[in-house]
Amino acid sequence: MITIYGSPKSSAGRCFWCLEEAGVTYETKSIDFRASEHKSEAFLKINRNGKVPALVDGDFSIWESLAINNYIADAYKPELLGTTAQERGLISQWSIWSVADLQVPMIDAFIQLVFVPEPHRNADIIAKAFEKIPVMLSTLEEELEGKEFLVADRFTLADLNVSFVVGICDDIKFDLAEYKNINEWRSRIANRDGAKRYKALCA
After folding, report:
1. Minimal CA–CA distance to 172: which of 119, 116, 100?
2. In a domain, 129, yes or no
3. Residue ranges of the GST C-terminal domain (predicted)?
4. Residue range(s) defining the domain that contains residue 152
């Protein structure tokens, strides 16, 4: 039995989505940070960093969301991975880009607009984030020109991982109207059964 630690409404969401795409049975365990469960001896044996997400599969444990997704796909849904070294490289490229580049300004804006009370928000941080986000999205928009998916003409981890981050735009109310390719791509992905099951977890 697979156990995933975290919440589908957090950064662990991409892992819940990947599990739903893989169609495997799993159980969810929440970690109470206020009660310092993340510092417990039992949890630190799973992730010595004391962070979520983390996944346990039998006597094997793994942490970091992109690594978890690679494991899930490799073990249970290989079609989410590339069939050649080039495809696997591109899937890694876009997955890493999604967290190293795209996600950074998204999270900056998210923290200010979702967690910080309006009177205390840092307008400069928000403005800088909203300046950077279009630059990142333009890269994705151009890549999707004439394509249904990012790599290999089929849905892969690249689409899942990148789309998960693009979804933050909904939370921060960033207008995606001018990004035709991204919107069409997101619609195709949203119609997948795995994506629908994941969204139901967040309802």
Report:
1. 116
2. yes
3. 84-203
4. 81-192
Note the pLDDT of residue 39. 84
Each residue of 36-68: b (16+ CB within 10 Å) or e?
eebeeeebeebbeebbbbbbbbeeeebbbbbeb
27's tokens: 């159980």
Q: Are residues 93 and 39 in the same domain?
A: no
Give the predicted TM-score (pTM) of the model.
Answer: 0.95
**Rounded distance between C-alpha atoms, residue 202 and residue 194, angstroms:** 13
Total domains in the chain come to: 2
Instruction: Pick the last residue of a domain from 41, 59, 79.
Output: 79
Q: pLDDT tens digit string along 95-125?
A: 999 999 999 999 999 999 999 999 999 999 9
Instruction: Report the amino acid identity of residue 143.
Output: E
CA–CA separation, 123 vs 46, rounded Å?
39
**Amino acid (1-letter code) at residue 95:** S
